Each structure stands twice: as C-alpha cells, then as structure tokens.
Amino acid sequence: MNDKLKRLSKNVSELFSNKVRSPQQVFDIFNSQIYKSQQAYFNALGGDSIIKIVLYIFSLKKTGDFKMGDDMINKLSFASVFYTTGYYTNIECDFCEGRGIEGCGRCDSNGYEDCDGCGGDGEGIDGNTCRRCSGNGTETCSECNGAGEVECSECYGNGEFETDELTYIHHYICTWDNEVKTQFKLNEKTNEPAMSEYDFDRLGDEYIVLMSTENNSELRNFVEINQVYCISYLNEINLIVSDSSSLNIYWSDYEDFLSYKL
Question: Is 37 contained in some domain?
Fold first, then answer.
C-alpha cells in the first residue's frame, strides 16, 4: 500500500513549491488545493493514507526521497489536546435579540409623546394654539429623543451577556517528535498540563493539527489559562475523515473529554 501512496505522493508533489516549511503547511495546502477537488477519492483512501501522503510530499520536497517520510510515519502517534486563553463566552441577549436596543415604552416606539404644554389637545391655556407644539399636540419623546428605541434594559446596550463558560481550543494532532510525544504520553488524562501554549506553538513544525474546533464550557478549576492538556494519547487509532468540504481527521474520545469538562 505504501508503494502506491508513494507513487501518488510523487505525482501530487509536483503541485507544491520546493519552499514548503513544515508538514502542517503541506497539510493545509493539500486541504485547500487538492482535497476539495477530489474529496470522494481521498475519503475512500482514509485518514491514515492521507497523513502518509502529506508526510511523503514533505519528505520529497525537503530531501528528494521518501526516507524522512518513512521515518516520520514509523514514529507516528496521535493526541487529542485542548487549551483555553481565558476568554469567557458571550451569549446573545434574548430580550433584544442581540440588537442592544428595545422599543421606547414612553412613546410606544413612535418617537413622539403628548405635548406637556397642552396635554395633547394643541391648545394653550389661553385658548390659542399651543406655542410649545405649534398646535400639533405632540412633541419629540424626551426618553428616546425621537428615535422610538432606547438602550436595552436587560443587557444595557451590549446585545449580549458574558457567561461563566470559557472558550477553549480542541486539537486532534499527529506527531513524530519525541519531545511532543513524551509530554503528551506522560500527562494523558491527568490534571497536569502537558506543556504551555507557548511551547506548543514553538514545536508547531513537529506535529500536524488534523482537526481543530473552538467551543465553550465551564471547565474545571484545575484548568490553567494558556496551558495545554492531553485528553488522549495513542500510537494506533481508528481515524475518521469528516464528511465536510474541508479536510478534518479525528477520532472519538468524547468520554475522556467529559472528565475535563464536567
């Protein structure tokens, strides 16, 4: 099978520049320029084969042969990780539907109210035309200044509320690097961070983010900001290619993730 993938990788590699910097860059280019046009074919090959193709292409571009790619594939492991930067999730205000404004109660949203000078009948106390409203019986609403709308009384014009739920980033990755593998393996399913977000970014050329999602949850108190936690670490896994226009490769570790979220 690998010989077939190598032949395919060699053909596809001609579409890539020789200046590719990392396997992640190859994966992203493969996703945007190749996968989308032949999605059914690559989905049939499966996630494992797609990862091998990406690493073979990178190997060809960096060294001219497949030796580096074979070495990376032989060392390959998989990890599901997450981190939070400490931003709380906002939700839309139901009362104003996110607009931040509501109808003015003083004027029933029409922007005008009865004239204070004549009580709305258009006549002054002397029986002549009311000077304040020029006989119209109405004047601009003092509450909304004629707009018919005022700041929402529930969200104070923000259109949303801050919740107690933190936004977190969840990655499915594959890696061949011993440092990355060791840290995630040692700290899998523990309350201890595997590494800082800074180190995770620093080591970005040593892994491929296969799928990434942004969600929110009331994370447990032990979760520190800007620290990366390992949900699951595996040497072999049943990979799933999502049925979407973009290439996303993942596996099911939902039950493990619940232990962090609840």
Answer: yes
Query: Is there a contact between 141 and 169 (Cβ–Cβ < 8 Å)?
Result: no
pTM, whole model, 2 decimals? 0.76
Quote the domain boundaries for residue 52: 2-88+164-261
Q: What is the pLDDT of residues 210-253, one digit of tens each?
A: 999 998 888 888 899 999 999 999 998 899 998 888 999 999 98
Q: Find the DSSP H helices in 46-151.
A: 47-63, 67-74
Q: Same structural domain for residues 172 and 253? A: yes
Helices (H) and strands (E) in the chain, counts: 8, 11
* DSSP bridge partners of 92: 160
Please return the burial class of 174, using the count of CB atoms within 10 Å of its CB with bins 0-12, 13-18 and 19+: buried
Please say whether the beta carbons of 157 and 101 come within 8 A. Answer: yes
